[in-house]
Amino acid sequence: MTIGQSHTVFHFLAAAAAKKRVFDVIVTENAPSYDGHAMAAALSKANISTTLIADASAYAIMSRVNKVVIGTHAVMANGSLVAPVGTHMVAMAAKKHSVPVVVCCGIYKLTPQYPLDQYSFNQRCNPSEIIPYEDGSYLDNVLVVNPAFDYVPQELIDLFVTNSGTHNPS
Question: What are 98-127's pLDDT values in tens digits?
């Protein structure tokens, strides 16, 4: 299983397929950007068996998953991640079902920053990605929050695969 679109994860899976490994990939659509659709299409073009699911289905299907392979925006100093929104939910479901979580990232994504809380580094995206402005006239008392990233603690990560080898989260 993977989340949304990650070029690093795509190349990791394509390299595995080129070595004649046989596997199926489940891709979450990663709302509201829905870049999982592009990832599923790219994997399909690479002749990798792919299934696209809604984000909310990740927990329900996790019992059928052997490993979760994700990309990340940054790896913090304590081994935690700043990853696309929805990653924390999938990592928690994987932990509950004892499914290993593998993070594919370049070594350049390591940062010396230490997270104080999950809101100190997060960016908020435009609320119109969720509810278009023309549809919002009836939502006067609704606050729409659209975070760009999730904070994923190191306890939910099993292995980092980088361009310099594999590493434990610690």
Answer: 999 999 999 999 888 887 766 666 677 767
Instruction: Spell out where the chain has E strands.
Output: 2-3, 24-28, 49-53, 68-70, 74-75, 81-84, 101-104, 149-152, 159-162, 165-167
Judge whether 26 and 115 are in contact, CB under 8 Å: no
In the sheet with 2-3, reading across from the earlier edge strand, the strands are 2-3, 24-28, 49-53
Residue with tokens 């990650």: 6
Alpha carbons 45 and 10: distance in angstroms, whole number: 11
Question: What is the arrangement of strands in the sheet containing 165-167, beginning at the earlier edge strand?
Answer: 68-70, 101-104, 159-162, 165-167
CA distance 167 to 79: 10
Residue 26, φ and ψ in degrees, nearest 5: -105, 125
- What backbone torsions phi and psi does residue 141 show, to the nearest 5 degrees? -110, 25
- The residue among 16, 7, 81 whose CA lies nearest residue 49 is 16
**Residue written as tokens 């990832």?**
39
pTM of the model: 0.86
**Three-state DSSP class for 27?**
strand
